[in-house]
């Protein structure tokens, strides 16, 4: 009897541990965007994935409060500004992985390897095809010119997407020029800033304004609902730094209990096998340069993207908020 128990115990210890493991992910990316990939990964490897979804800020607060007791192995969130913040708060741990270095271009990951981009989102100009000719458009900066007076709609400066956009403008132009651009934008506003990108586009479609700045996947969602919508995307700054891009991404938590298994999942998410779907589920662009975007996303055309490291969006976030506040951009 005793021998049998010992034999069973030995057998249990000898079994590969990873197949028994359950990884826990805290995700600011919504369930319908991650579940299909997690299910595919479980089917492939036997590794189970638990997740909770919430907004970025509460997830970070929760990770901090839980400290060493957190069940989370991975934090997945959107915007380099948020990932940078999480790293700064000390909840993410560096990962040395040749696979991640190979799959994720250098400017789309943390220089200290605490987070890695998994999809790229472009924040670009959207315009009314009824009232604007694309030839009238050129750059984000040009939206500050007097010709756009009363014709511009923007989303609130409280949203991290705009803080990141402005942070990258500071990186390119410095504070003084960025301030002038922000003042020009505020002067040109047709109405008070909107709470989200979709409302911004609906205002343009309704004739309340003519141009705006939005993330392309929101445009995609609107286009799917109403293929006849009289809006189009424009790729600005093509003779300069390029379109402002940002990422969704993930990092391994400081107190991960299943660190190696979580790193393997992260590597897989960056792989050619997973990237098409990861990006396509939210109409974004893959980070892995070997993978092409899905058809609808590709139909918006190719563009040159800014290649500054997205970590600057976090580093310059406080300055960006200050400048937007001073310019009266609410
Ligand atoms: Fe979004």
Keywords:
alpha/beta, binds fe (iii) ion, 14 helices, 330 residues
Briefly summarize what is shown.
The protein has 330 residues and is of the alpha/beta class.
Counting DSSP H or I runs of 4 or more residues, the number of helices is 14
The end-to-end span amounts to 74 Å
Shape: globular
The proportion of residues in beta strands is: 15-25%
Got a strand count?
Answer: 10
Helix content: 40-55%
Bound molecules: fe (iii) ion
What are the low-pLDDT stretches, counting only 5+ consecutive residues below 50?
Answer: 5-12
The residue-averaged pLDDT reads 95
Q: What class would the helix/strand composition place it in?
A: alpha/beta
Using the CA coordinates, give the radius of gyration.
Answer: 22 Å
| Main sheet record | 10 strands, mixed
**SSE sequence, one letter per element:** HEHEHEHEHEEHHHEHEEHHEHHH
Spell out the blueprint of helices and strands.
Blueprint: H1 2-14, E1 22-27, H2 31-45, E2 48-53, H3 56-66, E3 74-78, H4 80-88, E4 92-93, H5 98-103, E5 116-128, E6 152-153, H6 160-173, H7 175-188, H8 197-205, E7 211-215, H9 216-225, E8 231-234, E9 244-253, H10 259-269, H11 272-280, E10 285-286, H12 295-298, H13 311-315, H14 317-326
Parallel strand pairs: 1-2, 1-3, 6-7
Antiparallel strand pairs: 3-9, 4-9, 5-7, 5-8, 5-9, 5-10
Helix pairs in contact: 6-7, 6-14, 7-14
The structure holds fe (iii) ion.
């Amino acid at each position: 009897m005793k021998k049998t128990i010992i034999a069973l115990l030995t057998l249990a210890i000898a079994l590969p541990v990873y197949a028994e493991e359950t990884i826990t992910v805290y995700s600011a990316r919504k369930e319908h965007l991650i579940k299909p990939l997690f299910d595919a990964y479980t089917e492939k490897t036997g590794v189970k994935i638990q997740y909770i979804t919430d907004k970025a800020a509460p997830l970070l607060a929760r990770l901090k409060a839980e400290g060493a007791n957190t069940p989370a192995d991975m934090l997945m969130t959107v915007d380099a500004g948020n990932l940078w913040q999480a790293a700064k708060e000390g909840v993410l741990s560096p990962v040395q992985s040749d696979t991640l270095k190979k799959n994720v271009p250098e400017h789309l990951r943390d220089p200290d390897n605490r987070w890695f981009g998994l999809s790229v989102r472009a924040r670009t100009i959207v315009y009314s095809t009824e009232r604007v000719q694309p030839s009238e458009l050129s750059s984000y900066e040009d939206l500050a010119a007097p010709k756009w007076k009363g014709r511009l709609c923007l989303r609130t400066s409280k949203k991290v997407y705009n803080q990141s956009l402005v942070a990258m403008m500071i990186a390119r132009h410095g504070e003084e020029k960025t301030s002038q651009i922000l003042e020009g934008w505020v002067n040109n506003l047709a109405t008070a800033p909107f709470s989200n990108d979709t409302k911004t586009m609906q205002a343009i479609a309704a004739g309340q304004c003519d141009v705006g700045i939005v993330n392309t996947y929101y445009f995609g969602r609107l286009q799917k609902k109403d293929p006849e919508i009289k809006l189009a995307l424009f790729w600005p700054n093509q003779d300069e730094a390029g379109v402002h891009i940002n990422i969704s991404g993930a990092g391994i938590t400081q107190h991960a209990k299943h660190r190696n298994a979580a790193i393997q999942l992260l590597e897989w998410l960056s792989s050619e096998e997973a990237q098409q779907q990861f990006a396509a589920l939210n109409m974004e662009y893959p980070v892995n340069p070997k993978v092409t975007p899905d058809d609808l996303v590709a139909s918006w055309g190719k563009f040159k993207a800014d290649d500054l490291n997205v970590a600057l969006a976090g580093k310059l976030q406080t300055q960006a908020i200050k400048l937007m506040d001073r310019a009266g951009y609410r």
